[in-house]
Write a structure and sequence with these properties.
The complex is a heterodimer of chains A (226) and B (266). With 226 residues, chain A is an all-alpha fold. Chain A is built from ten helices and no strands. Chain B has 266 residues and is mainly beta. The chains are: A mainly alpha (226), B mainly beta (266).
């Protein structure tokens, strides 16, 4: 029986789906000295919202729509389109690893409804596609799938900033609240365009996120996987 | 102003055969070598409201290198409500090679410029595609720029990126996840059969860059830099191994090598 609380479970940072191991690029931004305090963290998040996070939340909404429509071909196209927008192999690996983990967690939490693997994406879907499919499987709407992806894209770097920079957790959660408010129009647009063909997926690029991911991979000591 | 260039290059005996080579203001075109042509600005353009189209077709087994003689300045126009639009479309056939190595794009403060690049590759096509954006002239902030590029090979998306500078006082693009105060940003896409592997990265205050391996084949050298020259130097070194034996020239990895514009006949 689907429950509206499923969205809260999915979005919770304590969901055992491996999200805590990733900083969404923040660790490298701290290493480069670009994120130092609450203000630069806020700017980092807003930068993502117009680029990679917009792509992710739109992909999540489109994947939810495609799953509800039983359109496997569109899921495959979405996966390829998201990869074309994620030139860093390291970022793609992190995204697919989290996608696989989310499917595995959802299969264990909500048996037998959730799929353990998507046969159309045998290498594991991107995280945003796993979010969209899982949300749709739990009878959540594409707008919920978009909000889930947005929340993950904002809280991942934000909670990493608390650990890496020792920022005040209250201040950081204030920033997350502001970022999610800024995300609302982006979420609404993603839901509105959830039926779009895959190639219309937004393609905003965050150059230092992609470059930073490769620099991060070279580091000998890392707290986060990405 | 509405104008542009149309080029249709086909394989010929020892040199590229230009089936079509036409230009209207604000652009001209001149053949400068057996497999090479340059685009020449013939007016101060693009200004807000201008539409410039560059259409390039490289037929099966043909080879073409395209450059521009100077940077493209996108200018504001007083009272104009539309942005300037530049559309670049290229189709590269089986076994064909296209090198697009233009000078920089400079969105001048106050301009609104829209750049759309569509690259359609056959399964065995090779492409080297450079795009460099300088964030305004010295001492000014950039105008607003929306540059989107999409590369499709045999129907499959290979690379898709969109860079937006909002041109505002707040300079949103300086966010730590985007450009973090860099003055120049650019990429060099290299894709095709037999392209050598190339790995590099840099994290100096002047240049942050990495070579990114695309899932659908090929690589993109991507960098942000403190200056246009730093960016060019790093991207040129990423062209290593791509100079074809048929076209000997200055070593692209050598920063002291003559810039391409000096190869032009005067």
């Amino acid at each position: 029986m689907p429950s509206p609380s499923d969205l809260l479970l999915l979005a919770d940072g304590r969901l055992p789906a491996g999200g805590h191991a990733h900083s969404g690029g923040l660790e490298q931004a701290v290493e480069l000295g670009d994120v130092r305090d609450a203000g630069s963290l806020h700017a980092f998040l807003l930068g993502l919202l117009s680029t990679s996070a917009e792509t992710q939340l739109a992909a999540s909404a489109m994947a939810a729509h495609a799953w509800l429509a039983g359109d496997d071909a569109r899921l495959q196209e979405l996966d390829a389109e998201e990869s074309a927008r994620m030139p860093s192999a390291w970022l793609r690996n992190a995204s697919r690893a989290q996608g696989r983990q989310l499917l595995r967690a959802a299969a264990a939490i909500w048996p037998p409804a959730a799929p353990l693997v998507l046969p159309v994406l045998p290498h594991g879907p991107h995280l945003s596609l796993a979010q969209g499919v899982t949300a749709a499987r739990l009878e959540l709407a594409p707008v919920d799938a978009a909000r889930l992806a947005a929340y993950g894209a904002m809280t991942g770097p934000a909670t990493a900033a608390v650990r890496l920079l020792g920022l005040d957790p209250f201040a950081v959660h204030g920033i997350v609240a502001q970022a999610m408010e800024a995300a609302e129009p982006v979420i609404a647009a993603a839901a509105e365009h959830a039926a779009n063909p895959a190639w219309l997926l937004p393609g905003g690029t965050a150059p230092l996120l992609e470059i930073g991911a490769e620099l991060h991979r070279m580091r000998e000591i890392r707290m986060f996987a990405s | 102003m509405i104008g542009g260039v149309r080029i249709n290059a086909q394989a010929g005996e020892g040199r590229t055969r230009f089936v079509e080579l036409s230009a209207t203001a604000p652009l001209g075109v001149k053949v400068t070598g057996p497999h090479e042509a340059y685009l020449i600005g013939t007016a101060a353009a693009p200004l807000d409201g201008d539409v410039v189209t560059i259409d390039v077709e490289v037929g099966d087994d043909a080879e073409l290198t395209l450059g521009t003689v100077a940077a493209t300045m996108a200018w504001p126009a007083r009272g104009e409500v539309s942005p300037s639009v530049m559309i670049v479309r290229a189709t590269v056939g089986e076994g064909a090679v296209l090198r697009w190595l233009p000078e920089q794009i400079v969105p001048v403060q106050g301009c609104r410029h829209l750049l759309r690049t569509e690259l359609t590759l056959a399964a065995t096509a090779t492409v080297v595609w450079r795009e460099e954006i300088v964030l305004g002239r010295a001492g000014e902030r950039p105008g607003s720029l929306d540059a989107e590029m999409r590369v499709v090979r045999a129907g499959r998306p290979v690379f898709h990126q969109r860079l937006v500078l909002d041109g505002s006082e707040a300079q949103h693009h300086h966010a730590p996840s985007l450009l973090a105060g860099a003055r120049a940003v650019g990429s060099l896409l290299v894709a095709g059969p037999g392209v050598p592997e190339h790995c590099a990265h840099s994290a100096t205050p002047e240049l942050r860059g990495a070579v990114l391996e695309l899932e659908a084949g090929g690589r993109v050298a991507s960098a942000t830099a403190a200056s246009a020259s730093e960016l060019r130097r790093w991207l040129e070194a990423r062209e290593l191994g791509l100079t074809p034996p048929a076209a000997p020239g200055p070593d692209p990895s050598d920063p002291s090598a003559a810039p391409p514009k000096e190869l032009l006949p005067r």
